Amino acid sequence: MNGSRRHFLQLLFAATVSHAYGQGVSSHSVRAQARSSPSGKPFRAHLTDVAAAAGLTAPVVYGGLERKDYIIETVGCGCAMFDYDNDGWMDLLVLGGTRLGATPESAGTRLYRNNRDGTFTDVTKSAGLDVVGWTSAVTVGDCNNDGFEDLFITEWGHNRLFRNNGDGTFTDVTKQAGLGKKRSRWGAGCTWTDYNKDGHLDLFVSNYLGFDLATAPKPGRTTNCNWKGLPVNCGPRGFPYGRHCSTATTAMAPSATSRMRPASIVPTKLTVYCGCRGFRR
Fold it and tell me: Whole-structure pTM over 0.85, yes or no?
């Protein structure tokens, strides 16, 4: 009797855990730490939303408004503040997405130039950054050592590398740098880092999921597309995980458009290593 009862409880527990994991529920075994006593010091920090007054009113488009059938529509994207024109004032890059089907006019990434008076001007088109895609993250760095900040943007599909030409414009040099791959990936976090201390920025890119619209199931179609009996978009459970990639600068050439410092060189080729076995150490 005891043995059958134990067996019954084991089966019940296994079924419960399996069902929870099927809905995408993660285990959580961390105990909450006790809250420390208040310091008694006044907290005078205060933030005011000045986006409208600064001219930052354009919406960030990412997926449908009424419903989102796929996980690609739910993740959103990031932004970066950097001085792209070297005038000493921080400018703003706001990533954007799109929608399945017809692409809205307001979709895409935006670059705002700081007017030095508390306002910003949209210079996306004149800067050559008027591209539309399912962007994720951006990392800013001077990858060609010419004194101007360049941009690497991750996306679902294919990532992009934009070289700062030093004249207020950017050029997409993804293929030239060896980063234009035929295989589609879902780029997520990214960062520039000189991992081998050679004075040239290398690149690390994390990838999220292996996702394909042609094969992705609709909400409610599988166990991973339900949450407590409600049909939801599928994922991340049920999709293959992505493999992270690192890149190393391998070839250099001068840039015809950048205003380079003496003896400055411009890396035009990056070698990509994906998967743990491909990482240089």
Answer: no
